[in-house]
Amino acid sequence: MQEMKFNAAAVRDRLVELVRKLAREQGFSRVIVGISGGKDSTVSAAICARALGRENVYGVMLPDGRQADIQDSVRVCEALGIRKKTVNIGPMHQALREATDLLGENVPEGDFPVPFVPYSNFNVGPRLRMTTLRYIGQALGARLVGTGNLSEITVGYCTKDGDMSCDFSLLGALTSVEVVEVGLSMDELPRELVVKPPADGLTGKTDEEQMGLRYQDIHLYIRQGTCGDPEMDDKIRLREKNNMHKRRLPLVLDPFAEKE
């Protein structure tokens, strides 16, 4: 299947229109965006600033302890002229670990211990970020912008009750490759931040290192049906299947439904 030509400027302008339309229909004027310094949040904030005015976009930086590239997040906010705030979720993360006693050192008699599982702990960061954004957003009367892209969603590189929780998904129909192209069409954005290798800001690894997949391959799989490597296609397809539950609302078990 031949890939359709992607018109980044047209897609960018259409997204601006859609944000304005949604704001009119739902009666809001402010949005809040978690700013990581990566391409997705950078492009999302820029589109919202064009749609609603930079004074109505609130960028929140959410390091978990120390974040080596936090200045990239600051640069995004300053380049766009949006309002900015930093909330370090590190103390919250540590407090949660202590409250649940993940190391199992002080388990009261009769309670079960909670083992330390790296990925369970890793997903705490995105969830605490979402909770923080929800807290601030509701206080400001602002809608929470989802910044995840279609490539991440397809292979499940996202967190339930974390970055998957939002009031509207701005980039959910665009692959990672397409988000970069849209970003490069916006002169107000620092080019190096748009093309910077995506990373979660929590583990010190890039997204591709974490997944063992290339975004270019995922893009081709989505848009053409194959990345050209059958083995890699199978790997992407399996991840897509296994993570489909993240793309759906919670399953309702209905005891009144007819038996199959």
Which tags fit this structure?
5-stranded parallel beta sheet, alpha/beta
Question: What can you tell me about this protein's structure?
Answer:
The chain is an alpha/beta fold. It has helices at 8-26, 39-52, 70-80, 90-100, 118-122, 124-140, 150-155, 176-184, 191-194, 207-211, 215-224, 230-242; strands spanning 31-34, 57-61, 83-86, 143-146, 168-169. The protein has a five-stranded parallel beta sheet, with helices on both faces. The protein starts with 7 loop residues before the first helix and ends in an 18-residue tail after the last helix.
Largest sheet: 5 strands, parallel
- Counting helices, strands and paired strands, the structural category is alpha/beta
| Rounded radius of gyration (Å) | 20 Å
Please estimate the helix content.
40-55%
- Tell me the series of helices and strands, N- to C-terminal: HEHEHEHHHEHEHHHHH
User: What is the molecular shape?
Assistant: globular
How far apart are the termini? 38 Å
How many beta-strand runs?
Answer: 5
Brief summary:
With 260 residues, the chain is an alpha/beta fold. It is 48% helix and 7% strand.
Topology overview:
Layout: H1 8-26, E1 31-34, H2 39-52, E2 57-61, H3 70-80, E3 83-86, H4 90-100, H5 118-122, H6 124-140, E4 143-146, H7 150-155, E5 168-169, H8 176-184, H9 191-194, H10 207-211, H11 215-224, H12 230-242
Parallel strand pairs: 1-2, 1-4, 2-3, 4-5
Helix pairs in contact: 1-2, 1-8, 2-3, 2-8
